Prior knowledge:
Elements: H1 2-29, H2 31-34, H3 51-59, H4 72-84
Helix pairs in contact: 1-4, 3-4
Amino acid sequence: MFRVLVAVFASLSAVTASAADGAALYKANCAACHGAAGKGGSAPAVAGKSVGVVTAMVNYHPPPMNNIKLSAEETKAVASFVAALK
């Protein structure tokens, strides 16, 4: 039973860390153009877009986004964060 609880808590902390990482990555790489709340700025609004749409935007981005290099895990974290924005 103890092992099961440890595994559950470990997975929950990983999910929390991923969400925090997505927020930090968004703030560092995206917010300047897409706005702190994802509502747009010098670049289009992204708030509430699906994980798939955001992933495609990051992976197949036009300039100036092509200077942003995110790993697949980082891209997923950012996409998940953006999808949760309202």
